UniProtKB/TrEMBL annotation:
InterPro entries: DUF2911. This is DUF2911 domain-containing protein. Keywords: Signal. Pfam families: DUF2911. It comes from Litoribacter ruber. PROSITE patterns: PROKAR_LIPOPROTEIN (PS51257).
Amino acid sequence: MKKSNILFIALMLLGSSLVVSCGERSNETERDGEEEIVEDRREERASPLRTAEGTVNNREIRVQYGAPSVKNRTIWGDIAPYDEVWRTGANEATHVEFKEEVQVEGKSLPAGKYSIFTIPKQQGPWTVIFNSEWDLEHGHFQYKEENDVLRVQVSPQWEDDSQEQLVIKVEEPGIVIRWEKLRLPIKVS
């Protein structure tokens, strides 16, 4: 092959790889108070990936979760069954990071990253679980109780207004989960 043909082919391959890599991914980041919305257009997710971060009681908290929508479905007792471990979001496990040791509902939790799971109850307090296996691709399907670092009881609050898409915020009293008519405040100090 002639040098000019080889050069032409090399330039064509380089040009096409640049076009593909530049056009393949478009990330947008929005700031809405303490919530960051990260959108990857290559993968349109039914439950978008969200990040919430902030400081409560002088403790830095960062939460990442998949945000499912109600979509006219029965959530409590169906999508999130009662008395079973729920991944507290969609897709991969929801996880939280604490830069230093914290008290969660009055119980000590060392600094680190943890997945968050909940056990919804039809009546009474819910169990909130902090598990050492924080990077689980399939949420509760990979959950192992032996990796639980902390379990606390939290009383759910039921509101009149409905929250279509799950939202987790870092706000007083610590981490607040809202979805459908649920408000689940988890105290962090």
